[in-house]
Amino acid sequence: MTPTYRQPSLNEYHKLTDILEELQAMSQRESKRHEMDQHLTPSMLSLLNDEIIPMLENELDYEPTDEDLGYGSEPPLSSKEMLAEAWRQHQKLHS
After folding, report:
1. Burial track 4-40 (b if 16+ CB lie within 10 A, e otherwise)
2. Phi and psi for 56 in degrees, rounded to 5?
3. Tally of CB atoms within 10 A around 93
4. Angle formed at CA 91 by CA 90 and CA 95, multiple of 5 degrees
5. pLDDT 10s digits, 57-94
6. Does residue 65 or residue 55 have the better pLDDT?
7. Do 45 and 27 contact (CB within 8 A), yes or no?
8. Residues 57/43, Cβ–Cβ less than 8 Å
9. Do 35 and 43 contact (CB within 8 A), yes or no?
10. Do residues 27 and 53 make contact, with C-beta atoms less than 8 angstroms apart?
11. Alpha-carbon distance 55 to 92, whole Å?
């Protein structure tokens, strides 16, 4: 069986988002089945719903804060500010 999400030009991040969608669909299909007809064991379904899917969602939705990026409480300088500071330093060194 060939997966329906396979596209050769996707980068690894997009492949993970497709895998996450497939895992979510799998979980929904399993939860609609009667317990005796389920393909996954209850512990595997619990692991999927309680740990694997939330962890993937958390990582894929991750957006670093300024502190994570090392900016602290101040935002990074704009290119205009960096150029002005470099020019000030240049003038100070050559005057």
Report:
1. eeeeeeeeeeeeeeeebeeeeeebeebeeeeeeeeeb
2. -65, -45
3. 7
4. 125
5. 999 988 887 777 776 666 667 888 889 999 999 999 98
6. 55
7. yes
8. no
9. no
10. yes
11. 52
